[in-house]
Structures are given as structure tokens and as C-alpha cells.
Amino acid sequence: MALYYEGYSDAISSVRAAEIPELLRHLDGLYGRDNVKDINNIEEVRREALRQVKEEFTDKSSEEYETVSFWQKVMNAK
């Protein structure tokens, strides 16, 4: 199993190439705009869209996810 579902790379590429109106549509179709303070700041909107796409495409039932989660907890425990 992979950490991300099929299509993740294409979705990330799409977000990286998008302008604000399309990025806002991405956000509206995923988890919303609540984490975006300035919807006119393309980098802020893009960062949030990338975060949401990653969340949407992460296979949380995969062994890879469990491994990554474990090591993130270890690193954050310091």
C-alpha cells in the first residue's frame, strides 16, 4: 500500500499551477477556507490548498501512514 491514494501527484500539480479563483474552489470542495486569513494572498491560499489536498489523499489505513505517524510523534516529543 502507498501513503497517498492514486492521483495525488496530479492534484498537487494542479494546485501548484492554479490561480486564486481555482484554489478557492479547491478549498470549497475540500475542507473550506477557515484556515486562510487573506484570500487575496496567493501563497497563503496555495499553502492551505496543498495541505488540504495532502490530507484528502493520505491513506490513513496504510502501513506507511502508521510508520510516518510514529516517527512524527517521536520527532515532536523532543
Structure description:
The chain starts with 7 loop residues before the first helix and ends with a helix. The chain contains four helices and no strands. The protein is globular and about 35 Å long. The chain has one domain. The longest helix has 16 residues, at 42-57. It is mostly helical. The protein is 64% helix and 0% strand.
Which helices and strands appear, and what pairs or packs with what?
Blueprint: H1 8-17, H2 20-29, H3 42-57, H4 63-76
Helix pairs in contact: 1-3, 2-3
In short:
The protein is mainly α and 78 residues long.
| Average pLDDT metric | 95
Distance between the termini: 30 Å
Which stretches are low in confidence, meaning pLDDT under 50 for 5 or more residues running?
none
Tell me the number of structural domains. 1
Q: Helix amount, in percent?
A: 55-70%
Task: Report the structural category.
Answer: mainly alpha
Number of helices: 4
Beta fraction: under 5%
Question: Shape from CA axes?
Answer: globular
- Largest sheet composition: none
From the alpha-carbon coordinates, what is the Rg to the nearest angstrom?
A: 14 Å
Listing every helix as H and every strand as E from the N terminus to the C terminus, the arrangement reads: HHHH
Query: How many β strands by DSSP?
Result: 0
